[in-house]
Amino acid sequence: MESSSMKRIAVDKVVINIGVGKSGEPMEKAKKALTELTGHQPAIRGAKKTVRDFGIHQGEPIGAMVTLRRQEAIEFLKRVIAAKRNVLKESSFDNFGNLSIGIHEHIDIPGTKYNPEIGIFGMDVNIVLIRPGYRIARKSRKRAKVGKSHRITKEDAIAYFREQFGAEVQ
After folding, report:
1. Residue 1 within any structural domain of the chain
2. 10 Å Cβ neighbour count for 135?
3. Per-residue pLDDT reduced to its tens digit, 8-57
4. Is there a contact between 63 and 45 (Cβ–Cβ < 8 Å)?
5. How far, in Å, CA of 140 to CA of 47, rounded?
6. Which residues is 87 bridged to in the sheet?
7. Structural domain harbouring 33
8. Nearest-5° angle of CA 92, CA 44, CA 24?
9. Directed axis angle between helix 70-83 and helix 25-38, to 10°?
10. Beta bridge partners of 66
11. Does any domain span residue 5?
12. Residues in domain Large ribosomal subunit protein uL5 C-terminal (predicted)?
């Protein structure tokens, strides 16, 4: 890709999310599934607002998520891309170089066995890419911005996944 070390792209984090839609036993099973997949304790996400038609109340736990960083994130990402048979859709990339993948059944991920106690869950996997220097945008003292030439474009992200993971983008 680029020759400058400041232009090097890396995986910042991988966020795995299972939306169950109701609390109780299904929520506990989703938490077990995420723990089995990642080895981390999932965080619980509550409903943002009440939806009477679905029987959901504001603040009720309806989803679970785990954030992976560093080497764990890359190892999990390799398994997820293998589950998608090394084919990613171009429409899954946004204009800032992030990627979102949907997994229909968590047992499609290599190394995962079916557990009848848990069942089968679908999930969303979101990948955030980063370049050196992005940390300045997160600093609270100064309202610094990442320059346009330094931002990760959709094309940069596609090239990164082709090179690093051998993924085919359609």
Report:
1. no
2. 10
3. 888 888 898 888 877 778 888 888 888 888 888 888 887 777 877 877 77
4. yes
5. 29
6. 168
7. 10-169
8. 110
9. 110
10. 16
11. no
12. 61-148
